[in-house]
Design goal:
The complex is a heterodimer.
Chain A: E1 4-13, H1 17-28, E2 33-37, H2 44-48, E3 54-55, E4 64-65, H3 66-77, E5 83-86, E6 90-95, E7 101-105, E8 109-118, E9 124-127, E10 157-161, H4 165-174, E11 180-185, H5 194-205, E12 210-213, E13 215-220, E14 228-233, E15 236-241, E16 244-247, E17 251-254, E18 265-266, E19 269-271, E20 284-286, E21 291-292, H6 300-318, H7 333-339
Parallel strand pairs in A: 1-2, 1-8, 2-5, 8-20, 10-11, 10-16, 11-12, 19-21
Antiparallel strand pairs in A: 3-4, 6-7, 7-8, 9-17, 13-14, 14-15, 18-19
Chain B: E1 2-7, E2 13-18, H1 24-30, E3 50-53, H2 58-61, H3 66-72, E4 82-84, E5 97-100
Parallel strand pairs in B: 1-5
Antiparallel strand pairs in B: 1-2, 3-4, 3-5
Classes of the chains: A alpha/beta, B alpha+beta.
Bound molecules: flavin-adenine dinucleotide and FE2/S2 (inorganic) cluster.
Chain lengths: ~350, ~110
Amino acid sequence: MLSNFVETDVVIIGAGPCGLFAVFELGLLDLKCHLIDILDRPGGQCAELYPEKPIYDIPGLPEVSGQGLVDNLLKQIEPFAPEFHFGEMVTEIERTEDGAFRVRTDTGTALLAKVVVIAAGGGSFQPKRPPIAGIENYEQKSVFYSVRRMEDFRDHHLVVVGGGDSALDWTLNLQPLAKSVTLIHRRPEFRAAPDSVNKMFSLQERGEILFEQGQVSALKGENGHLESITVKGPNGEVDIACTRLLPFFGLTMKLGPVAEWGLNLEENLVTVDTEKFQTSEPGIFAIGDINYYPGKLKLILSGFHEAALMAQAAKRIVNPDARVVFQYTTSSSSLQKKLGVI
Amino acid sequence: MAKITFIAPDDTRYDVEAETGSTVMEAAVRNGVPGIEAECGGACACATCHVYVDPEWQEVTGEPEAMEEDMLDFAYDVRPNSRLSCQIRISEALNGLVVNLPERQA
Ligand SMILES: Cc1cc2nc3c(=O)[nH]c(=O)nc-3n(C[C@H](O)[C@H](O)[C@H](O)COP(=O)(O)OP(=O)(O)OC[C@H]3O[C@@H](n4cnc5c(N)ncnc54)[C@H](O)[C@@H]3O)c2cc1C
Ligand code: FES
């Protein structure tokens, strides 16, 4: 399944703040980067978990919002034209015969790079499993956390749970295909875009979907095949026919495939040295929240420092014969040319 | 300072002292009360610090704000007296507060 094949200097796994800043430090040393993230946009935790909350401990920025920091980082790395692969999870890293790395994602992308930087933060963002007893027995048979193929829902009794954009979007998109659609949310207010909420209510008025206020309390059906669910609402319990369930309960971070790459770990973190931030595999580095070393602080500023030191070591791997001169961006015309400011 | 009591689903009681200006979540974490996970460290971004406020105290603790209500969508077995404990700020008025812990966090 090699749908795309790409060759580059460095592959960065994770486009959180530390992965983004690594592009800058590597770029100053003329290394070209590709970034891969399971999310559909850059920014990691800052963009996904607290886009509007203020951060007060970024050196030189007395106050910046999570999204504001991400926007600034994107502007800062623009001169280096990094290439992003969003919506893809890195599943495999394999060393090639000549000592480079082949990195593969779950969508079939393969990249060849001389250096891999793991900036995977708290791990990959994955949908949260709602705390309903026995739900794991139905997963991938009747219960799905995302829609890969709409056809899988045709002619089914579909129940969608949640009040955000994903829940509303899939309620609207799958309604024409499904035999019946019920949306369940614990309260009459929604987080989703008002436009989708209005569309949903007008479908409900025309009797084309049902809306039930409450929380799913039980699942029924044999061998992973769901037949009905119980919903506990303000007026007691109701049973609803259901052969496909799509619960949207937000995202959580799981280490995910990082654990399977044969690297030394300590409590689910990748151990590195503090000179190069290199893992137990030469050529594979780890920066930001994902790494561990004595004294580690999971702060954005630590990840930035780690990126700068890692870049020096990465340069020596990619261009072993190049002489690396220490320079300031303030005064070096060669760095300023790279940044496009002169 | 305020005295806060956490009651676990198995009726175990945890009495802790909480500093004015801190939050009910912080009081739980500092004193090792099991069942408050607080994954996001109090940023109202994870819903793993869910508690049920004792009905007698509901009026004093007040209603959740819109952002907290949104986050409560991700909690387990949400009831009318559900709150995210990182959003309840300790004041002298809360001295004696009683909250119940849910069977599990999301
Ligand atoms: C509510 C909250 C408030 C915070 N406040 C502050 C603060 O004030 N100051 C501060 O310094 N820090 C703060 N932090 C911590 C800070 O956000 C993290 O230290 C920072 O985000 C770490 O950056 P990172 O780039 O290492 O990882 P992350 O931001 O976690 O990004 C990692 C990215 O890697 C992706 N990924 C992981 N595995 C894979 C894979 N296999 N394939 C593809 N993609 C993958 C993930 O999807 C994710 O997007 C806060 C955190 C939270 C939750
Ligand atoms: S600690 Fe995360 S929401 Fe309260």
